Amino acid sequence: MKIAVASGKGGTGKTTLSCAMAFAAQEKVTLLDCDVEEPNSHFFIRPEIEHQEQVFRPVPAVDETKCTGCGECARVCQFNAIVTVNGKTLVFNELCHSCGACVRICPTGALHEVDQPIGQIETGRRDHVRFVSGRLDVGQAMSPPLIRRTLEQADAESLTIVDCPPGTSCPYVTAVKACDAALLVTEPTPFGLHDLKLAVETIRDLGVPFGVAVNRMTEEKNPIQAYCEAEGIPLLIQIPEDRRAAEAYSRGEPINTVMPELNERLAQIPEQLKAMI
Amino acid sequence: MKIAISTSGEDLSAPVDTRFGRAPRFLIYHMETGTFSLKENKQNLNAAQGAGIQSAACVCEEQVDAVITGNCGPKAFAVLDAAGIKVYTCGSTAISEAIDQLRQGQLHPADEANVEGHWV
Amino acid sequence: MKELVIISGKGGTGKTSITASFAALADHPVLVDCDVDAADLHLVLQPEIQTSETFVSGHVAEIRTGDCTQCGLCMAVCRFDAITDFRVDAMACEGCGACVEFCPEKAIDFPEQECGIWHRSKTRHGSMVHARMHPGAENSGKLVSLLRTEAGKLAERENAGLILVDGSPGIGCPVIASITGADAVLVVTEPTLSGEHDLKRVLQLVSHFRIPAMVCVNKWDINKEMTSQIEALAESMNAVPVGRVPYDAAVTAAQVNARALVESSDGAAARAVRGIWGAIQKQLFAEECCHVAS
Question: Name one GO molecular function term (chain C) (predicted).
């Protein structure tokens, strides 16, 4: 089973929850860090890295000896990544979405695909946690191809926890859609509630069953609880606000070390989500 | 010699639009005759991306020799360069004045893009 | 006219709270919320919407079942696994049009896609341009570009001296669209290992686009040693440290009351934000910050 740990707003504690659930699990577990723009879970897992591989995506290249400058490739490209001027074809890789339409349409076979590096995938291990992390190269705009490749590393046999990118657009959708269930992490502030609502709206469109985790709970009245009750969304865990947790986070220590009393609760979350599928 | 000038106006008194990729139209000026025509750049304003590239392609269609604009991004510059079109940059002055400056040799051809852009 | 973009690399570092305070401190700026995925600035500034327009961008494939002969070529050409059982999953469709182009029966339509809605508004601190993406919609980078362009027009009309942009987290397409061509960037970070790591990546991106950068550390007293380490990192990457904000419950209290921190508190964090705003103004209006074409 694959569980997405996601949120609309950034910085609510996705990585904290993902790592805490991985450590609290009683059995073998895989953690996939799919927040490839800013992967952070390695700080908390501290895995021994066993393998690193470069990830590529295909982009078109022009064989000038075969190109007649007919401009069919430029016409078919929806992303303005190709232009033909004065019989010359120019390709702009940054705009290319790797759809392959240009190569397929070229009447003279002047276009072929070459590999362009977009990032790395690291694989490692610590205790019962198998760790996989995607890392986008700085300056690359498009993260979904790398997210998809990272997701391929999920373990079909055992539990896989996916630390997702923030937001509600393409990177978030790419990661969440591939999972069986999701845990949406939020915080009890107006920003947290607003962004949770957007994440809920998106995930309902995707049809993925989900529950909510509240991080940095205070004693005061909690708007998230009221919202979840009204919407019939299960509130699976609440993590109290605690300066020790913030300090541990700053040093890269998992929350399990400062709040071991949470372990039992954390270990139950996958079971509860499984029952919702 | 034919020149394309980015603008949101419709005659020589209008100012040069400093955006090349998202300029509403180009004024195509004939140096020899002093006449001009207008080339709409409308479809590019709504392009998801690569507006600069498409604007450059649009200008190339007019077979101009040079472009006067404010800011030209690296992708648009690469296209214009491939087509052998020179790029002159100036501030937001009147088109007629920019043409005068070009005549008097006060505008220098850019040898690289002067703004970094991704969507511009 | 100057354009300052506030970004964070890592999410949740307090970028929007700090932007809202700058909005209150600046002299009638034009405000833009470019964190279109998780737009929160309006929760503090309570804009009164003046005009709304839909944001249309890109296309999505739609198979006309009646004309489809189920030859399967569309599935073969689609690189995004967006077609199953001769139906297009709009969420998965990348809008590349390959299936539309190659369908032998021309049985696939390719309508434009409405991705969201954007507004011009008034707030108590100035005009504001903001938007809401439809859930799961694409082209957030394009929407960001549109918002900045519209803010530029508004600023020109209103003769505003400053555009304040609340940027998005990460280093991908919306962030790139938020910062290209801006006069300066402020990165709001926090003294954590993740904060440091993400700051480094986002500063690499900012320097790639040759934009002057400043850095401030929020909740700096959670890990004082890490704060010093982060400021040293910033300096080594040519970013100017402009201040530290202490951990202060007044920040959340301000958010709950829909006020900017400097409007509702005179506490330690509010005083720190005022100091940072002073330092930013010096940087922003100094010569060395002006080398990017405006």
Answer: ATP binding
CATH of the domain spanning A64-109, picked from 3.30.1330.60, 3.90.1010.10, 3.40.50.150, 3.30.70.20: 3.30.70.20
Using CB atoms, pick whichever of C10, C172, C208 lies closest to residue A11.
Answer: C10
For B46, name the nearest residue in chain C, comparing CA atoms only.
C57
Q: What is the pLDDT of residues C18-39, one digit of tens each?
A: 999 999 999 999 999 999 888 9
- Computed over every residue of chain B, the mean pLDDT equals 86
Q: Where are the alpha helices (DSSP H) in chain C?
A: 15-25, 41-45, 73-77, 98-102, 140-158, 173-179, 193-208, 224-236, 250-256, 261-264, 268-284
Q: With an 8 Å Cβ cutoff, are A172 and C141 in contact? A: no
Q: Does the distance separating the beta carbons of B56 and A95 come in below 8 Å?
A: no
Q: Which residue of A has its CA nearest to B84?
A: A86
- SS3 for B18-35 is CECCCCCEEEEEECCCCC
- A2-55+118-274 CATH pick, 3.40.930.10, 1.10.150.130, 3.40.50.300, 3.40.1280.10: 3.40.50.300
- Check pLDDT > 50 for residue C292: no
- Show residues of chain A in contact with B82, CB under 8 Å: 85-86, 88, 90
Is pLDDT above 70 for C172?
A: yes
Please give the DSSP secondary-structure letter assigned to residue C288.
G
Q: Does C58 contact B at CB distance below 8 Å?
A: yes
B-chain residues within 8 Å CB-CB of A83? 53-54, 56-57, 79
Containing C57, the helix (H) or strand (E) segment is: strand C48-59
* pLDDT digits 0-9 by tens, B39-84: 998 655 556 677 888 899 889 989 999 999 988 888 899 999 999 9
